[in-house]
Design brief:
The chain is of the alpha+beta class. The chain has two domains: about 1-65 and about 210-249, no CATH class; about 70-205, no CATH class. About 25% of the residues lie in helices and about 30% in strands. The chain is built from two helices and 16 strands. The chain has helices at about 1-25, 210-249; strands at about 35-45, 55-65, 70-75, 80, 85-90, 95-100, 105, 115, 135-140, 145-150, 160, 165, 175, 180-185, 200, 200-205. The strands form seven sheets. Strands 6-5-12 form a three-stranded antiparallel sheet, with no helix packed on it. A three-stranded antiparallel sheet has the order 9-10-11, with no helix packed on it. A two-stranded antiparallel sheet has the order 1-2. α1 packs antiparallel against α2. The longest helix is centred in the C-terminal third of the chain and has 39 residues, at about 210-249.
Amino acid sequence: MDKALYVAMTGARATLQAQGTASHNLANADTAGFKAALANTVSYRVPGGTHASRIDAMHVDQGFNSRVGAQRVTGNPLDVSMRPDRWLAVQSPDGGEAYTRAGNLSLTPNGQLVTGGGHPLVDENGQPFALPPHQALDIGHDGTVSIIPLGEGPKTMAVIGRLRVVEAAPDRLARGLDGLMRNTTPEQPFAQAPGEVMATGTLEASNVDAAGALVQMIQLQRQFEMQVKLISRGDENAQSANSLLRLGG
């Protein structure tokens, strides 16, 4: 009986963790460039030498859904949408390099180019990208940034740098607690992606299916209730069995 209770208990725990993943996805249904997190449950035999008799229902992180989100035209020159398997490089809070597809860019008062989450974009050399005073800005499809200096005419437009955009397959990326992706094999750094890497004036929406996430949350809630009932019934059966043993004695 204790084995059944153990399996039901670990299953309920895994269901709660899956519910957290589903709610996190739903909360980011409107976040630009967000990739839905994937989760699953697997059976894991708990080590115990020659008595490994417990099976744990374990929640596992299966990465993220790499499908490209819907494209939304904004006309904003600071909005960019990345091509498939292309990622904007940013400076993470720990000073390292991380990656995102959130193309809703903005300028800080000191001219630094940042993502909607406030993470500084970096150039080809890995340095934070800052712009001098200007009256017009253009981001090319290859990631080059051009400006018309303040008080100058259109003919003075000049390229001041290129954004670092890398080509990375989904299986080489893992999402951190800060929502940014990181290279799972840092000893093999990503190379600058060639050619057209982005479209400007458009944004990639989240690829979360909001209706599907709601249905999943309902299913997980019912599954959790069933597992709790199984634990309760197992406890009642154990108490009944103990009562019979006492009467038999």
